[in-house]
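Internal ticket #5521
Category: modeling
Description: The requester needs a full-assembly model to guide mutagenesis choices. All entity lines are attached below as received. Residue total reported by intake: 584.
Assigned to: D.W.
Attached entities:
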Amino acid sequence: MTKLYEMTALEISEDIRNQEVSAEEYLYSLFERIEKFDGKIHAFITVVKDMALKKAREIDSKIRKGERLGRLAGVAVAVKDNICTRGIRTTCSSRMLENFISPYDATVIERLKAADAIILGKTNMDEFAMGTTTETSYFGATHNPWNLSKVPGGSSGGSAAAVISEEATVALGSDTGGSIRCPASYCSTVGLKPTYGLVSRYGLISYANSLEQIGPLTRTVHDCALLLSVIGGHDDKDSTSVKISSKNYMSCLRDDVKGLKIGLPQEFFGEGVEEAVKEPILDAADKFEDLGASCHEISIPTMDYALAAYYIIAMSEASSNLARYDGLRYGYQDDVYEGNFDVVFSKNRKAGFGAEVRRRIILGTYALSAGYFEQYYMKSLKIRTLIRRDFEKAFKHVDLIMGPTMPVLPFDIGERIDDPLQLYMCDILTVPANLTGYPAISVPCGFRNNLPVGLQIMGRPFDEETILRAAYTFEQNTNHHKRRPPL
Amino acid sequence: MDKSNRVPIEEVKHIAELARIELSSQEEILFTKQLNEILDYFSKINEVDTDDVPPTYHVIDLVNVYREDKIQRSLMDDPLKNAPKKENRYFKSPRIV
């Protein structure tokens, strides 16, 4: 019999609704997993066992009374620790926010609660979402469940690791330059970065606000569509939220890609992309052709400049967004409390932020400073326009763009952490979706050296349906998503 | 300009000061090295001709959003709970002038 912790959100919510299992016993099965495995994986920073069990009992009692329940009835969700949760510590994996208890819920959390989901806890991440490995967390790295000596990807590494190790049924992450898709690829989960503006960012602690979106990390495409249906749609509290009402993304899940035109950009298979990664992606392309889609080689000439432009923009926005952390109203405050405001402020930020966060703030400050503004920041924004034009042009001829999510297989913890530029290079294939705002998903597409490879599928803005349909069709006709790590 | 030393250590110190981030002397050396490597890589954007190309600050058109001037749920004293130092209902700050 399927264990409760193995079930998808779709299955467990149905069983809870039909009173075949109680939300409480289902939660106990997850807490057992967490207690057994999270010591070595370290996916969670905070687990709210009592709060979650209380909520589960409330849901069970609602069902017994015959009340109607939301679409995520009883489903346990792990939430990345840069998404504000009222009454629960929200740390951003930073010493700066180590003891910060959010006084309000992010809109996505309000929507999860309204759908009767249960918040299980907060997951580990790179500090302020700045990283590709979850190694920059103040609380220590998360380990890849497939091989504990490898990185799980980042920055939403805790969310992906929790989902694939069945410590949580589904999770939320955030994606600024690949932070959902990268760990999805490295942990063999489904991970979607929605179109910019589709999901409210209210309550998402800002790193680079023009690039980031909250999105689901799940074990099946169906759960991804379910979660997106709950969190998506316009929000008055976010001025960058587009006036689109929430949709039911499950209705587009058909096992059918006949006639779909898929573009494979040559730049996604170029220098720096490992053979071990290319092979499963090309196998996936063959699969899509077998299923009735057609694959076409295309070119995105400005791809070569995407990474530099992305980092300059992200760091510039970060330097501004993180200016608010002075340790005064909340956050880390140095005990040595003397000197003027500037001195105290600088000390708090020295001790409160890790090296990568400080590096990015300093680089961003540099790129925005007088004399360099045009050369770096403005130039990057113009290149962003050119990259957008390239993708717009490509999408006139194809319905989807496909390639690897990550250029290399998961690597060892500690292997690249001392060389920031080497780490940035890992984001080369994921940043275009953030610069353009286009939606993109990563789905499991095979294994090499017992490590997962993720297939990235990008679509037109607000056309999550076609992405999800292609991902669903691929999943229905392959078995990669059924594999679980040997814990 | 020497390619590997685009930004001298004095400038890194100055930028860190502007960003209100104290650096140890070891970090000043390390960050200078890393910043120069990273900026070296970034300089490839200069290869692109961007004459007459408008910048994209945001991928969607931003318009001001207004809401009705109606009182909604207030956070009350909750935000004060996170303050490291406070007095009564006030945040306590270091000397500003």
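Resolution: model delivered.
Comment from assignee: Chain A touches chain B through 69 residues (CB under 8 Å).
Ticket closed.
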